[in-house]
Input
Amino acid sequence: MGACAAIDQGQTLPRTVILLETEEESGSANLLYLMDKVKDTLGAPDVCICLDSETADYDRIWVTSSLKGLAACNLK
Output
């Protein structure tokens, strides 16, 4: 509700971009391509928040310092 109060007071709100990545379980094959395609719209963010982690409870804020990744290689 803080955003609504700020609007009611005539304050300007920060620019917010929401990026929904929905291919994660299949390796995000198109993510870089699509981000490159809209890079002028995305711009250079000052902050990036990832909402892809678990919490032990909803009574406090939890910080995840690293997330799993995906690596591909050819073994010879």
About this structure: The helical segments are 2-8, 31-37, 39-42.
